[in-house]
Amino acid sequence: MQTSTSCHLYGLKQSARAWNKKFVECLIKFNLRAIDADPCVFVNKDKEKTLILAVYIDDGLIASTDNLKIKDLLLHLSNELEVTSKPLELFLGIEFKYFSDSFVQTNQSKYAKRVVNRFRMNEAHPVAIPVNHQDLSLETPSNQSEIVNAPYKEAVGSSLYLTMVYRPDIAYAVNTVS
């Protein structure tokens, strides 16, 4: 699901806040409530049916025990907002591939490749594990000016995202270089 609203909300300092307020009001009308743990996840639960909506900016992911409930929500939203709906293929950098009604494969290979290319690591050579801690000295290198301009924090941050979301196996290496 992707949503947008009228142009009067765009270009203002408070645009994001105004958009969120309007969107949440729309969801409350449909009896969706934000969960305590995350204000971007909304739930509508009755005796037998549950609907969950996860929102990131103007993208949403809807899951429900009843397809009719999803259609009703999309109809409700389309009455107040411009909404597009399509089968889930990519959400927050995670790719989804369906094999049957009961099997879904997820991966983040496109995001990982984008990170590798962004930081020009596509020519890097793999290193044997475990890590040699002697190679990780804190001495000031001779090429200090090159290191100052390197996007080190961005590379570590991108790697941390991969670690937290999809690749816990690289946690030790990312922690070591961070």
UniProtKB/TrEMBL annotation:
**Reverse transcriptase Ty1/copia-type domain sequence ranges:** 9-131
| InterPro entries assigned to the protein according to its UniProt record, in alphabetical order | RVT_2 (IPR013103)
The highest taxon in the source lineage is Eukaryota
Q: Which Pfam families match?
A: RVT_2
Q: What is this protein called?
A: Integrase core domain protein
Say which species the protein is native to: Lasius niger (Black garden ant)
